[in-house]
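I am writing to request your help with a piece of structural work I have in hand. Thank you for your consideration; the sequence and its tokens are set out here:
=====
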Amino acid sequence: MNSQEIKRIKQKMVACVDAGFFDKNKPRCPSIKQMATYLKETHPELEVNIRALSTYKTTKPSGFRYTTGGGTKEYKGTLLVVKKGDEIIIDHDTTETYRENREVAEKILKL
């Protein structure tokens, strides 16, 4: 990956973090894969592990008088784990509810 792409990813992370949380026009954060690539290039001392993740969650319908019961739904996402020695610096699972890539961008920019 060349330096232009690294700069572009960093600019996207900065723009994403600087935008207000409830700002309607906030720019999208880079993908987890792009941020992992950025970390590998800029911080070679860190161990960056990224993998595809598939989780099944049980759903339960509510508010119905007659139901056929709940079910399971598959959520696909990405798991990013960044370690420095034995210490885990970043552990981010995109299938978790209310988790955003913005959290990862904030942590990366603080490194």
In short: The longest strand covers residues 71-84. Strands lie at 47-59, 71-84, 87-93.
